[in-house]
Amino acid sequence: SKTNQTAIQSLLSSKAIQRLAEFGNSILCYYLPKVYQLYVNTKMSLVEKQPNLKWNFQNSMFAAATFNLSPAAVTYSHMDNGNFASGMCSITALGDYDPTQGGHLVLFNLGLVIEFPPGLTILIPSAILQHGNVSISSRETHLSFTQYSAGGLVRWVRYGFRMVVDLERESPEEWKAAKAECNTRVQEAPLYFSTSEDLHNTHTK
Length: 205
Known about the structure:
single chain, alpha+beta, 4-stranded antiparallel beta sheet, 41% helix, 17% strand
């Protein structure tokens, strides 16, 4: 609706939100440079192909953002299956609550419950890691700001700006190669993550 569009534009143009977006982008660049480079390449390809596209933030390579503005935003155990599987989701907690009593980030697969104070940002592979958060008291507020990139967007660029059905119809040989690629993608997924040694070598060059 027009009202929602106005609210979204107000948030996207907020200097405070833009700084949060840039911070999420910066830690992605530092700690996961391979994922960051993929996001950069995807953005550059999209902008070159469709220059009329409006990116949410000029200072962030994440393709999408979500604002959870409920006074007491709670997410149950879930995985964001639409996100790029080897990618990262930047989650920033906002609001006014006691982080020792509620608002904890829960990473179910890892058996972790993490105190998550307002203003904190974390990167998690939200497509493959079950996550949620603990509720807060009725007198408190809890909101969140997230950034992420869809796997379908990466695939769209990789397939020459085509959907899977179009690739199969228009380029049978490319489609066969793409199918073969899918079989090895699970094995390749860990290569997007950096070890401490990788990071040391990257940032001391």
